[in-house]
Each structure stands twice: as structure tokens, then as C-alpha cells.
């Protein structure tokens, strides 16, 4: 169940040795992890997008991005840290480095305590599939499937095992050939493979995003019909669950799977869909229909994850409720020290400080003096301080299903 060999077997015929090894190599939920493996989009990207666009660097490569915590731009779409950074700090791990900083693996061992494949604009579904639905993504083609493939390529270098070449070969073979090789490869190298790669992934925390939100943001902005958008929901969630299944087969044991945030409270979408109809807004100024959609998506995702838990009772599949963890910022902002909830700290003009033709950092935009008093950074992303509040609700288990309190492993 938690190794590559199980790809050769039916669910009713599990390989006894592997079951035993998996059972004893997995530890209790409340433990310190050795590594964070992160997938996702701009809510999790710690620098990949900026690295990929070296010839035409985007605005997160320049001030005022990064000014609050790092005192320099890092490629994050924020004035400081992201949720993945707060997870790393809580778990006593280094901030998770972007994969494309060393995609040629000149020193892959530096990824043994964490690696981030998230890229700004990434989607759960491939761009070609989205294009057939009329949705065009010009930001990146590094979808969830591509990110998963990058991990598979990197994994042999992370296992600290001389069997790395064997693993790399096995990962990309058809299933029927996997079976033949796996059953004929139970010597010392096979044992070494199990102990190293299985242990590495057993002790890694897998952050599955946030991923999938860009499909819908693009669809809304590009005027795609509600029927097409509604049909995308099960497809996006299917892509996420399929990726989790693959990672379980590779040996991963603990997943954090975020839902989407309150879309109706984002300044960029409030600007795009501004209306004179007061009934379209809730008492906090958020667009009701967008938040209703986010709620619908999250409920669908929660049901899928519950089904997966029943299939994999030994695997920790944790729903991270980004929506509920975010809502206190809008319901009682002053209790957290926020003065502005729906206005971007860094932007252009208008009631939400957003100019849809300009990005934070472009000429003609300006940044607020105190980002810590703002919930939103650039119209589409939270500030460092907002991420801190959201992360607290996730890390203490109050906004996770099932409740999962992460241990403090920082020295």
C-alpha cells in the first residue's frame, strides 16, 4: 500500500512483506517530520515562477515583495511568508526551497529536508485539457501532473540509497513490467530500496497545494459558462485525489490537502465583478456567489477525502480548511490587529486598491505603509500577518478535518 511494489498487486492481494514493513515504518500522527514536499500554485510558490521566467522576471522578483519578513524579494507572492513557511517553522525544518533553484540536481541532497514544486498560475488540470474547455492559462504549464513527475525524477536522489537507479527505472515502467522486476528484485538492493525510499516518504509531510483554484479564477474572469465551471469541480478534485493515490503508492503517509479560500473576499475579484446590487454582497462586503462557489467546491473535496480515508485507513489524509481559517480575518479583523480586510495593501486605485491592468510593483502602483494591518497583499494573495493567523488555525488543528494538531519541533 505504501510502496511501489503494491502497483503490481490487486487491492485484495497485498504483498505481506511490504505490509509489515509499511506498518512498522510508519509512526504516530503526532510526530516531527523530516521533510516537507509541497505542490501547488501561487499560494505555495516559494520562488519557482520567478526562476522559470529569468528572461522576463515577473513582479514578485522585485520590491515591495518580500519586504516585511525577508527584507528582499524571494519570488513569493507576498510581503513575507506563506502558509508553507509557517508549517516549516512549526516543524523545525528549513523554509522549503523551490525545486527549480537546482532543477539539474547539482546538489540534490539539499532537498532532503524539503522541496517545493508549486508554481504561480499552476492548475490541477493540464493546460491542454483546460484549453478544450475554452480556458486559457498563459502563466505556466507546470500543472499538478507535471509537478508530480518532477518529484518522481528527483526521488532517487533523495532516498540516500545505491538503489536509486533501480527506483528511477521502476517509476517510469509500465505496470506489467513493474511487476516482473519487483518480484525478481528482492535481494539486498531491493531491501535497501524499501528501507530508504519508503522511510523517506513515510517521514515527509506532503502539502497538496492549494491547487485547483486557478482553473476557476481563470474561468470566472474569461467568462466561461457556469455549466462548464460546475463540470470542472469533479475533474479538479479527481486530479488531486489521483495525485494522492500515486504518492501513497510511492510510500507517502501524511497529506495536508487544502480547500479553497473565500474567493468572494479577494479584492481582485471584487473589482472584476463589482456591482451596484447591494444584495450581491454579504454583511462583510464579500461577494456571496463567489463564496457560495468556494463552499460548494470545498464540500465536494471533503467528501472525496473522506472516501479516500476509508480506502486507506493507515494514511493521514488531512483536509486543511483554508476557508474557515481565513474567515475570522473578515468577521473580526480588529481582534487580530487588521484595519483593512477588502483593500489590497499593494495596488493601484479604486475602492479595493486594485487596477486589473497593473500588478503590485508595476509603475503606477503603491504599497501601504503597514502591511501587517492589511489582510490582503496584492489583490489576490494574503499578507504575511494574515498567513500567520491562518496558519495558526491549521497548525493547532482547529481548522483541519480530522483534527490534527501538528507538534512543535522547532529547537
From TrEMBL:
InterPro entries (alphabetical): GDSL, SGNH_hydro_sf, SGNH_plant_lipase-like
Superkingdom of origin organism: Eukaryota
Pfam families: Lipase_GDSL
Keywords: Glycoprotein, Hydrolase, Signal
GO MF term list: hydrolase activity, acting on ester bonds
Span of the signal peptide: 1-29
Homology family: Belongs to the 'GDSL' lipolytic enzyme family.
Protein name: SGNH hydrolase-type esterase domain-containing protein
Organism, scientific name: Gossypium raimondii (Peruvian cotton)
Amino acid at each position: 500500500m505504501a510502496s511501489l511494489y503494491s502497483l503490481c498487486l490487486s487491492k485484495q492481494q497485498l504483498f505481506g512483506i511490504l505490509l509489515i514493513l509499511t506498518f512498522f515504518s510508519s509512526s504516530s500522527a503526532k510526530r516531527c517530520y523530516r521533510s516537507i514536499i509541497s505542490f501547488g500554485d501561487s499560494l505555495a510558490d516559494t520562488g519557482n515562477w520567478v526562476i522559470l521566467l529569468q528572461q522576463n522576471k515577473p513582479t514578485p522578483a522585485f520590491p515591495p515583495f518580500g519586504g516585511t519578513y525577508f527584507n528582499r524579494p524571494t519570488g513569493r507572492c507576498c510581503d513575507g511568508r506563506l502558509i508553507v513557511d509557517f508549517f516549516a517553522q512549526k516543524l523545525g525544518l528549513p523554509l522549503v526551497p523551490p525545486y527549480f533553484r537546482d532543477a539539474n540536481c547539482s546538489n540534490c541532497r539539499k532537498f532532503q529536508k524539503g522541496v517545493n514544486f508549486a508554481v504561480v498560475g499552476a492548475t490541477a488540470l493540464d493546460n491542454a485539457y483546460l484549453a478544450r474547455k475554452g480556458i486559457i492559462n498563459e502563466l505556466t504549464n507546470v500543472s499538478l501532473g507535471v509537478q508530480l513527475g518532477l518529484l518522481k525524477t528527483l526521488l532517487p536522489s533523495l532516498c540516500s540509497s545505491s538503489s536509486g537507479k533501480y527506483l528511477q527505472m521502476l517509476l517510469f515502467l509500465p505496470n506489467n513490467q513493474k511487476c516482473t522486476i519487483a518480484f525478481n528484485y528482492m535481494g539486498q538492493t531491493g531491501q535497501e530500496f524499501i528501507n530508504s525510499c519508503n522511510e523517506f516518504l513515510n517521514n515527509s509531510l506532503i502539502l497538496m497545494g492549494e491547487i485547483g483554484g486557478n482553473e476557476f479564477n481563470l474561468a470566472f474572469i474569461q467568462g466561461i459558462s457556469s455549466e462548464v465551471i460546475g463540470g470542472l469541480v469533479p475533474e479538479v478534485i479527481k486530479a488531486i485525489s489521483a495525485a494522492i493515490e500515486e504518492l501513497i503508492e510511492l510510500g507517502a503517509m501524511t497529506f495536508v490537502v487544502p480547500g479553497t479560500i473565500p474567493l468572494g473576499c479577494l479584492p481582485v475579484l471584487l473589482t472584476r465583478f463589482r456591482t451596484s446590487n447591494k444584495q450581491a454582497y454579504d454583511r462583510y462586503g464579500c461577494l456571496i456567489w463567489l463564496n457560495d462557489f468556494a463552499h460548494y467546491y470545498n464540500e465536494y473535496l471533503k467528501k472525496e477525502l473522506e472516501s479516500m480515508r476509508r480506502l486507506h485507513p493507515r494514511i493521514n489524509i488531512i483536509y486543511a480548511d483554508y476557508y474557515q481559517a481565513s474567515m475570522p480575518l473578515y468577521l473580526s479583523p480588529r481582534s487580530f490587529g487588521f484595519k483593512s480586510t477588502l483593500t489590497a495593501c499593494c495596488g493601484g486605485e479604486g475602492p479595493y486598491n486594485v487596477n486589473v491592468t497593473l500588478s503590485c510593483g508595476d509603475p503606477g502602483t503603491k504599497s501601504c505603509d503597514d502591511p501587517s494591518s492589511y489582510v490582503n497583499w496584492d489583490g489576490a494573495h494574503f499578507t504575511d500577518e494574515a498567513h500567520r493567523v491562518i496558519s495558526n488555525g491549521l497548525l493547532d488543528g482547529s481548522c483541519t478535518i480530522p483534527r490534527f494538531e501538528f507538534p512543535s519541533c522547532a529547537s
